[in-house]
């Protein structure tokens, strides 16, 4: 027989008391969030069930009068049909805690967790006639607990300024572990101009794939990520093989074994593009509400990590510029000190040479052409005096080539005054 979900269905029983008890259960669980189903016979035919039961297994399967193995064939390989058989055979109830079950198949399959009881239902003679299934779905609580633990760890990483690659790589692995089915996560980072996306983290995607999409442009129809970045909104591609957004990347995705890609833009607080957060699947798949919520949570966390990284980069760059400016200033100060010291040395040398020339000029009054160089200073110079030099004051002296050159370079207005003894020629050909 068929019962409309949400309404009571009547089950024929030889026991009036048993029928009343079942009616009470149906009334109790009719509008409850707890799942309830009444199964009959050794094949576990669904006699009645409340809306929460059908919502859990998928409302498209809301039928009664059908054996559970036929209504939910995926349970057979997960051991739940065997448990029903055992309870029906022994008459002993069974209780499960946080039992994991994959409901449905293909793109619409989802992971769920339940606390449940299989309670044997007996007829008037005490023989087991069926099983009552009563449970509470704990999927959201389970996922929330796992998510909180992982999310807290990520926030701690960001707070201690862990490298961005470490944070994003850890986030990707965390989501892959949290996902009910195999999922591969990728984070792409936007260039400063927002026109291209660069590899950020994708620990489970093949290297050739990451290298191929590194630097892809942002724009309409450029895969899931390029389009999401361009639109600034999520882009859900449930089947890469047929979606036009993937025309230019379909062969690449096929090589990597990718069949679906859901991409969410990572946005800064001011709305600027920071990157994209993508979830890949090996088979075509439609996202559940929990998948989309997970993407939003971690896209926000990734935004926090990336913005923090940008702040640290800007701070480091400013500090580097300050250090460079300080070093350049120190170099300039040292150079100025060196030049000043050289200038002082040259001034001292010039003064000394000028004194020598004055002394030599005074000596020439008695001896016009000395034999030895007159510009050697206190220590003197025994080299032949071959070149005569003078200054604008009229002082003149004879010197060797080396001291004459020193005087010309260091004493203002000194010039070669005579070509006697080959003076100018000797200086030019020294």
Automatic annotation (TrEMBL):
Keyword Coiled coil (UniProt): yes
Cited Gene3D superfamilies: 3.30.450.40, PAS domain
Domain GAF: 150-316
One Pfam family from the record: GAF_2
Keywords recorded for this protein, A-Z: Coiled coil
Residue ranges that the Swiss-Prot or TrEMBL entry lists as coiled coil: 315-360
InterPro entries with a match to the protein in the record: GAF, GAF-like_dom_sf, PAS-like_dom_sf, PAS_4
SMART domains recorded: GAF
Name of this protein: GAF domain-containing protein
């Amino acid at each position: 027989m068929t019962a409309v979900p949400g309404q009571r269905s009547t089950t024929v029983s030889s026991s009036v008391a048993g029928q009343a008890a079942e009616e009470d259960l149906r009334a109790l669980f009719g509008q409850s969030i707890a799942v309830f189903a009444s199964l009959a016979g050794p094949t576990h035919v669904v006699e009645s069930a409340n809306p929460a039961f059908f919502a859990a297994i998928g409302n498209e399967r809301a039928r009664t009068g059908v054996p559970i193995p036929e209504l939910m064939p995926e349970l057979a390989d997960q051991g739940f049909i065997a448990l029903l058989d055992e309870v029906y055979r022994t008459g002993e109830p069974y209780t499960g805690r946080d039992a994991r079950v994959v409901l449905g198949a293909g793109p619409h399959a989802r992971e769920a967790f339940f606390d449940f009881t299989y309670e044997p239902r007996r007829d008037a003679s005490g023989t087991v006639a069926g099983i009552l299934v009563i449970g509470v779905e704990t999927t959201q609580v389970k996922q929330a607990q796992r998510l909180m633990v992982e999310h807290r760890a990520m926030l701690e990483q960001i707070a201690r300024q862990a490298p961005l690659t470490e944070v994003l790589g850890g986030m990707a692995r965390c989501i892959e572990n949290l996902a009910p089915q195999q999922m591969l996560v990728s984070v792409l980072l936007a260039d400063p101009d927002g026109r291209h996306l660069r590899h950020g983290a994708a620990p489970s995607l093949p290297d050739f794939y990451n290298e191929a999409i590194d630097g892809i442009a942002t724009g309409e129809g450029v895969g899931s990520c390029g389009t999401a970045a361009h639109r600034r909104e999520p882009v859900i591609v449930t089947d890469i093989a047929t979606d036009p957004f993937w025309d230019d990347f379909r062969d690449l995705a096929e090589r990597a074994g990718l069949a679906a890609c859901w991409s969410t833009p990572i946005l800064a607080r001011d709305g600027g593009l920071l990157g994209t957060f993508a979830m890949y699947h090996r088979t075509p798949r439609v996202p559940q509400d929990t998948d989309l919520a997970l993407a939003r949570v971690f896209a926000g966390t990734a935004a926090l990590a990336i913005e923090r990284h940008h702040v640290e980069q800007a701070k480091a760059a400013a500090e580097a510029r300050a250090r460079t400016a300080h070093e350049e200033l120190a170099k300039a100060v040292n150079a100025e000190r060196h030049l000043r010291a050289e200038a002082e040395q040259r001034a001292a040398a010039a003064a000394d040479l000028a004194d020598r020339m004055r002394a030599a000029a005074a000596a020439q009054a008695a001896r016009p052409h000395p034999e030895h160089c007159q510009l050697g200073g206190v220590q003197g110079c025994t080299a032949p005096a071959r070149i005569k030099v003078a200054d604008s004051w009229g002082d003149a002296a004879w010197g060797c080539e080396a001291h004459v050159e020193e005087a010309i370079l260091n004493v203002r207005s000194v010039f070669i005054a005579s070509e006697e003894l080959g003076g100018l020629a000797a200086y030019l050909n020294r």
